[in-house]
Each structure stands twice: as C-alpha cells, then as structure tokens.
Amino acid sequence: MTQTSYAGLPGRVVLITGGASGIGAAFVRAFAAQQARVAFLDIDADAGAALAQMKKWPLNRGHFIPNCIWTDSRD
Fold first, then answer.
1. Fewer Cβ neighbours under 10 Å: the N or C end of the chain?
2. pTM across the whole model
3. CB atoms within 10 A of CB 33
4. Residue closest to 34 by CA, chosen among 63, 48, 19, 13
5. Which of these, 74, 75, 40, lies nearest to 57 by C-alpha position?
6. First to last CA, the chain
C-alpha cells in the first residue's frame, strides 16, 4: 500500500475521536507520520495510553486525552 504525502499537514493540529483502536488509531498513526500534531480521545484509557507511548512517534506528536466521551449535550 502506498501512502500519500500532504505538504500542508506538517505542524497542523488534528483531533481524532475514537483514536485508541481500529480505524481511529490508524488515522492517528497516519497523521503523525505526516508530521501533524495529533491529539486523540477515547473512552478506552488502556488502549489510548498504549498508543500514546509508542516508541515510533515522530517528534513526540501524539497526545492522548483519556476517558473522554464525546456526546450530544442535548441528550
């Protein structure tokens, strides 16, 4: 699989909900690989902490916000 490079992403801030596992984690890794500054949140604190502690983070670009539930305030 080839990965596309986006010249406008380095240094940009990206917020990903549900970023601790699955496709969300794939987005976290992909944006970090493009040198974006990535913050991600998830209710799975263990998986999020494990992803945030990865040794392969380029320039420490991953920041995890644990135990965060994104809901509609009208609920």
1. N
2. 0.76
3. 16
4. 13
5. 40
6. 41
